[in-house]
Design goal:
With 224 residues, the chain is of the alpha/beta class. The chain contains 8 helices and 14 strands.
C-alpha cells in the first residue's frame, strides 16, 4: 500500500517534523499523492533534484506551473544555496494545489529529535502533522544521536550517556504532543522491526498512529 494511504495524508497543508528522513518523506509522498503537490519549508532545506522550483509571489504563475508540472517545490534561495520559506503564504499555495507538504523542523541530520520551545515551525494552516523518527538512533547514546539531548532528557528522565530505547523515543513524542501520526524510518532489518514494534507498543494508550518502514527501500507497514 502507498505510504500516503497508510499515513492518511489529507488534502490541504500538512506539516512534517522530526528527524531521520523528513525531506525524503516529502519527496516520497509528493510522488505518490494524486493531484497537484507543492513541497516547501518553514525553516530551510536542500533543493529537491529534478523538481521545478518556484521562487516568485504570483499565485497565477504558480498555478500555471502546477498545470504543467504536477509536483513542484516552492521557496526562496538563501545565500548558502538552501531553500527557505516561500514568498507566498501557505493559504495562497493551498488554493492552487491539492496538497502542500511543509518540512517544519531542523535536526542537523541526527536520527532523533526533541524540540525547544521555539520549535517546530508548524504552519497554522496545517490540518495534520507527521513526525519522522530514525530507527538508526535506537540503541545509541542520547548525547550522540539526539538533536537537543537536554530537552530529550528532561522529557524522558534519561541521562545523556544512556542509550535511546524505542520506548524512550516514543515517550518523548507522546509528551511533546505535536503529531498524531508518526513514521519510523530506516527500518532495514529484523532488529529494526523489533524496535519499531516496541516503539508502537509504547504508544498503545495514545491516539497516535504509528507506521514504520524504509523510505529508501519503499517498504512500509502500519503498526498502530
Amino acid at each position: 500500500m502507498e505510504l500516503f494511504r497508510i499515513l492518511g495524508i489529507k488534502p490541504g497543508v500538512s506539516g512534517i517534523i522530526g528527524s531521520g528522513g523528513k525531506s525524503t518523506l516529502l519527496r516520497t509522498l509528493g510522488e505518490e499523492l494524486p493531484g497537484r503537490v507543492i513541497l516547501c519549508t518553514t525553516t530551510h532545506i536542500m533543493p529537491f533534484p529534478g523538481l521545478e522550483l518556484y521562487t516568485g509571489v504570483s499565485v497565477e504563475e504558480l498555478s500555471e506551473l502546477l498545470a504543467e508540472h504536477r509536483l513542484v517545490c516552492g521557496g526562496r534561495r538563501s545565500p548558502e544555496g538552501k531553500l527557505i520559506a516561500p514568498g507566498l503564504s501557505m493559504e495562497a499555495m493551498a488554493r492552487v494545489a491539492d496538497y502542500v507538504l511543509v518540512e517544519a523542523d531542523g535536526s542537523r541530520r541526527l536520527p532523533i529529535k526533541a524540540h525547544a520551545s521555539h520549535e517546530p515551525v508548524i504552519p497554522p494552516e496545517s490540518g495534520q502533522v507527521v513526525c519522522v523518527v530514525g530507527a538508526s538512533g535506537f540503541g545509541r547514546r542520547v548525547e550522540e544521536t539526539v538533536h537537543r539531548p537536554e530537552v530529550f532528557c528532561r522529557l524522558t528522565g534519561a541521562k545523556p550517556e544512556e542509550p535511546v530505547t524505542p520506548t524512550l523515543a516514543a515517550r518523548a513524542i507522546a509528551w511533546e504532543g505535536l503529531a498524531r501520526q508518526v513514521f519510523v524510518n530506516q527500518v532495514d532489518s529484523q532488529s529494526d522491526w523489533a524496535g519499531a514494534g516496541e516503539f508502537a507498543r509504547a504508544l498503545e494508550k495514545t491516539e497516535i498512529c504509528v507506521a514504520a518502514g524504509s523510505l529508501q527501500k519503499r517498504i512500509y507497514r502500519r503498526l498502530k
